[in-house]
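Milestone 3.1: sequence recovery, worked example.
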């Protein structure tokens, strides 16, 4: 994770997730990475980043959830009611 005054960058394997108060900072960083031969794709959706969902609250804060991954773990471990036996 890289945090600066204007941008936050989170990486995992070959994925990069950027946050900023203004798009121009992300555009400049993307251009710099492209010049350094880094292939950048703009998905404009965080669900592709490890199943992370970002939700902006009415007060302006951001909540990150990873429900898809958690659901897979619960189902795989047999901890869900549909596939397990409650005790």
């Amino acid at each position: 994770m890289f945090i600066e005054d204007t941008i936050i960058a989170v990486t995992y394997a070959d994925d990069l997730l950027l946050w900023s108060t203004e798009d121009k900072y992300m555009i400049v960083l993307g251009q710099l990475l492209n010049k350094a031969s880094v292939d950048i794709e703009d998905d404009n959706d965080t669900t592709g980043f490890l199943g992370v969902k970002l939700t902006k609250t009415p007060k302006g804060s951001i909540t990150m959830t990873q429900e898809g991954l958690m659901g897979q773990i619960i189902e795989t471990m047999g901890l869900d009611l549909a596939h397990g036996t409650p005790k």
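The helical segments are 23-35, 67-76. The radius of gyration is 17 Å.
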